[in-house]
From TrEMBL, chain A:
Its main location: mitochondrion. It is found in: Mitochondrion matrix. It comes from Didymosphaeria variabile. Its EC number is 1.2.4.4. This is 2-oxoisovalerate dehydrogenase subunit alpha.
TrEMBL record, chain B:
This is 3-methyl-2-oxobutanoate dehydrogenase (2-methylpropanoyl-transferring). Gene3D superfamilies: 3.40.50.920, 3.40.50.970. Keywords: Oxidoreductase. Residues 81-257 form the Transketolase-like pyrimidine-binding domain. It is an enzyme of class 1 (oxidoreductase). GO terms for biological process: branched-chain amino acid catabolic process; generation of precursor metabolites and energy; response to nutrient. Pfam families: Transket_pyr, Transketolase_C. It catalyses: N(6)-[(R)-lipoyl]-L-lysyl-[protein] + 3-methyl-2-oxobutanoate + H(+) = N(6)-[(R)-S(8)-2-methylpropanoyldihydrolipoyl]-L-lysyl-[protein] + CO2.
């Protein structure tokens, strides 16, 4: 280290040194946290509070009392509508125009019908896999409606409603689900792993919780960019995850780093009671996921996920909070019940009672709750319901039909995008594959792929 | 709406009765074969027949003739089971015979997503067979700790694709535990990390990986991949008995596809021996796991077409692997092909080929050929073009013989 830099560092230190700590020595590091500058306080005989490096403002006590989280009152759940669609706080209202509410309703119903159709289509062997959002439509549709459309979103997989609310078209859904040539994922991902750069939603990856630190990092990038471009509307990053995924190390790492870097990131947990077969009682023993926010010093709220108005209001407020004081993370735990099977590969009656599911279906649901509110206000009726459902079903089946008929993506997409440019090794592999496909034409049906064998030539011709 | 195809109409009808029960028992295998790239007139691809393959014991008599079985087992009974049932039987025996054995992982309690731990929690209690929270690094680290206290934990990773969060625990801790403790001689033998591996035809990027070569680059672990129910049962029991940690990778396509007669009694198969599945004199194919079936089908066609004779060797344990069996075979045949699903660069094939080149160079009539996954990921629509198929192995045999 040069002498010059040492002197500069000393200068800065002198400026930052808290005046309340006259003992702070000059050999302290450049940025001096309060606790370091005040190491001696804890040892004064009359001090009432400690300033140990790891805990600020802790009072001394001579009561031997362990914290017993199980004895605490459970964190409350925010809602705006009751189960019958009645507004609880008439003064605040629902914070949503009638028109918006009708749009949200339609999107939830569209998602719900698409789920029914695609689930059954998988059962018929027409696509390889599917996951429904049943019971959680309000969380994805509602939260997405309260975000800025350019806020980058990092999904888990049960958030098709976010895509729908942002305008992902039925044809785009079908292209991905059937892995056809229009799929922007180029036929590489399993169904429901949607992604759209245009809509600022990252491609879904099956690995749980990996997207959480990404969101924290993206949020930090946004924080810097928000500062650098004060004229552009500030953005936040948003990520969704299940209560099961919240057990992964990445969850904890993400919340912690987002907190230490004060990144404007909204962490939205969908707590639907299950992680495949694992009930929450095997997943954690704390008070849900919300209780963890405090541990990381993060502003946190628990919300009734069956109440789309509550979801919206909570998300909007979280967004505001996330952008105050230069930015900070916020955690929202949206409560729900996973009404459907985990996926088409799962039969949930192997681990839960059918009556449990039926009870939940009957008890509460984001779609019926909003419908009650709409009907109460004369914005909706049985005829409209029937008409809308029938129209949506037709639209979805038409898109289904178009999507299913299209060819598979080009074979070249098996190889490109691994690196920015195709490598020599890959080139050799492409040549070997092409040679096999050419010499054994009866063994393969390359015509099902867009462009057949030709796309391999495109790849080989691509300049090195 | 424009003219509907009849099946679209069927879907519509389904929607008119949305309360209709869904097909409840239709699980992973419900979805079949649509993405196979083999055409109707194919002669090679699509010829892997699990019902008739010589790699499985279709009769009790054949199963009991296995020379690796001890005498008393050979005098016993067999039962026709698939690979996940064989895993279940091995776990059941281990739990029954050794109270140090504990079995856990994500969704293990209800039987696991591939049903390998079915009924174990109810039969042995949830103290010993249980769900863990969803954290691979957590559950593997937990297993290492339990093993270091003398237990025999069998930890399940739901898919090999999800083992990476636990990579640190496996590489830096499990593998090195004995070595770092030195004269203290604390180890985590008894630890088995089970995981389903390989493609099934529709797993895409995160349900298809074969990351075995990542584990073969680490001393201190045994990496085992069984090819059949019998192998799964015998090798898993040995893995649990072993005083070294074992990574046990189960080809998930074989869970249901491979069915054979398996001895009912417990038995132990060696963790340090490859097995010659078929003898031959012109060429040796070395493989492991599911591709062995592909190789076997290719060999049948090649022997018929070219009048050659091909030897097939199953490595079984891919590290530390049985060099002697492989080298003896290649020294005899003079030609070798290595086949695996995972990609070529720095794969198991690279190690086997290099060893053959070093130790049997003068006996070689042709370069050692590798038939493997290409240098890419397992994109959903391209799986059948990426993974070695019968045609590619057949062609490799032809080229190696013609060299
Ligand atoms: C790292 C990792 N481990 C395991 C899995 C297998 N897996 C897929 S979904 C799932 C359960 C997730 O539950 P949760 O986060 O609660 O989301 P939900 O399905 O309830 O929406 C598991 C274990 C995975 N995809 N990734
Ligand atoms: Mg869940």
């Amino acid at each position: 280290m040069s002498l010059r830099s040492v002197t500069r560092r000393l200068d800065i230190r002198a400026l930052r040194r808290p005046s309340s700590c006259p003992n702070a020595s000059l050999s302290l590091p450049r940025i001096i946290p309060v606790w370091q500058a005040c190491r001696n306080v804890a040892s004064t005989p009359t001090a009432e509070k400690v300033l140990f490096p790891g805990a600020l403002n802790s009072e001394f006590t001579n009561n031997l009392e362990f914290m017993r989280p199980s004895k605490n009152k459970a964190i409350s759940t925010f809602r705006i509508l009751d189960q019958y669609g009645q507004v609880l706080d008439k003064e605040r209202g629902v914070d949503t125009t009638d028109e918006e509410a009708l749009g949200l309703y339609q999107n939830m119903v569209r998602l719900n019908i698409m789920d029914l159709i695609m689930f059954e289509a998988q059962r018929q062997g027409r696509l390889s896999f599917y996951m429904v959002s049943t019971g959680e439509e309000g969380i994805s549709v509602g939260s997405a409606s309260a975000l800025n459309p350019t806020d980058p979103v990092f999904c888990q997989y049960r958030e098709a409603g976010v895509f729908m609310q942002r305008g992902f078209s039925l044809d785009q859904f079908m292209a991905q689900l059937f892995s056809n040539t229009d799929d922007t994922g180029r036929g590489r991902n399993m169904p429901v792993h949607y992604g759209s750069r245009e809509l600022h939603i990252r491609t879904v990856s099956s690995t749980l919780a990996t997207q959480l630190p990404h969101a924290a990092g993206a949020a930090y990038a946004l924080k810097l960019q928000n500062q650098q471009n004060p004229d552009v509307e500030p953005r936040v990053a948003v990520t969704y995850f299940g209560e099961g995924a919240a057990s992964e190390g990445d969850f904890h790492a993400a919340l912690n780093i987002a907190a230490t870097r004060q990144a404007p990131c909204i962490f939205i947990c969908r707590n639907n009671g299950y992680a495949i077969s694992t009930p929450t009682s095997d997943q954690y023993r704390g008070d849900g996921i919300a209780s963890r926010g405090a541990g990381y010093g993060i502003d946190t709220l628990r919300v009734d996920g069956n109440d789309i108005f509550a979801v919206r209001t909570a998300t909007r407020e979280a967004r505001r909070l996330a952008l105050t004081d230069g930015g900070k993370p916020v955690l929202i735990e949206m409560m729900a019940y996973r009404v459907g099977h985990h996926s088409t590969s799962d039969d949930s009656y192997a681990y839960r009672q059918k009556v449990e599911v039926e009870d939940w279906k009957r008890r509460d649901n984001p779609i019926t709750r909003l419908r009650k509110w709409l009907e109460e206000r004369d914005l909706w009726n049985e005829d409209e319901e029937r008409e809308t459902r029938s129209q949506l079903r037709k639209d979805i089946l038409a898109a289904f039909d178009r999507g299913e008929k299209k060819k598979k993506p080009k074979i070249r997409h098996a190889f490109d995008d691994v690196w920015e440019n195709i490598t020599d090794e890959q080139r050799a592999h492409v040549e070997e594959l092409k040679d096999i496909l050419t010499r054994y034409p009866k063994e393969y049906d390359v015509s099902q792929y867009e462009g057949g064998l030709d796309s391999l030539d495109e790849l080989l011709e691509k300049k090195r | 709406m424009a003219a509907k195809s009849p099946s679209i109409r069927a879907l519509s009808r389904y929607l008119l009765r949305p309360q209709a029960p869904l097909h409840p028992r239709c699980r992973q295998q419900c979805y079949t074969k649509r993405y196979s790239s083999a055409v109707a007139g194919a002669r090679l691809n699509g010829t892997v027949e699990y019902d008739t393959t010589p790699l499985l014991y279709h009769t009790s008599k054949a199963a009991l003739a296995n020379p690796e079985l001890p005498e008393d087992v050979r005098r016993g009974q067999t039962k026709r089971i698939n690979l996940y049932q064989a895993v279940n039987e091995a776990l059941r025996h281990a739990l029954q015979s050794d109270e140090r054995v504990i079995v856990f992982g994500e969704d293990v309690q209800f039987g696991g997503v591939f049903r390998a731990t079915m009924n174990l929690a109810s039969d042995f209690g949830t103290e010993r067979v249980f769900n863990t929270p969803l954290s691979e690094q957590g559950l593997v680290g937990f297993a290492i700790g339990a093993a270091s206290e003398g237990m025999k934990p069998v930890a399940e990773i739901q898919f090999a694709d999800y083992v990476y969060p636990a990579f640190d625990q496996i590489v830096n801790e499990a593998a090195k535990y004995r070595y770092m403790s030195g004269a203290n001689q604390v180890h985590c033998g008894g630890l088995v990390v089970r995981m389903p591996t390989g493609v099934v035809g529709h797993g895409g990027l995160y349900h298809s990986q074969s990351p075995e070569a990542l584990f073969t680059h680490i001393p201190g672990l045994h990496v085992v991949i069984p090819r059949s129910p019998t192998q799964a049962k015998g090798l898993l029991l040995s893995a649990i008995k072993s005083n070294d940690p074992v990574v046990f990778m189960e080809p998930k396509i074989l869970y249901r596809a491979s069915i054979e007669q398996v001895p009912v009694d417990p038995f132990y198969l060696p963790l340090d021996k490859a097995e010659v599945l078929k003898t031959g004199k012109d060429l040796t194919i070395v493989s492991y796991g599911q591709p062995l079936y592909t190789c076997s089908a290719a060999i049948t066609a090649a022997e018929k077409d070219f009048g050659c004779s091909v030897e097939l060797v199953d490595l079984r344990t891919i590290y530390p692997w049985d060099r002697e069996t492989v080298l003896d075979s290649v020294k005899k045949t003079g030609r070798a092909i290595v086949v695996h699903e995972s990609m070529q660069n720095a794969g198991v094939g690279a190690e086997v080929a290099a060893t053959i080149q070093e130790q049997a160079f003068l006996r070689l009539e042709a370069p050692v050929k590798r038939v493997t996954g290409w240098a890419t990921f397992t994109g959903l629509m391209f799986e059948p073009l990426i993974i070695p198929d019968v045609t590619r192995v057949y062609d490799a045999i032809k080229k190696t013989l013609d060299y």
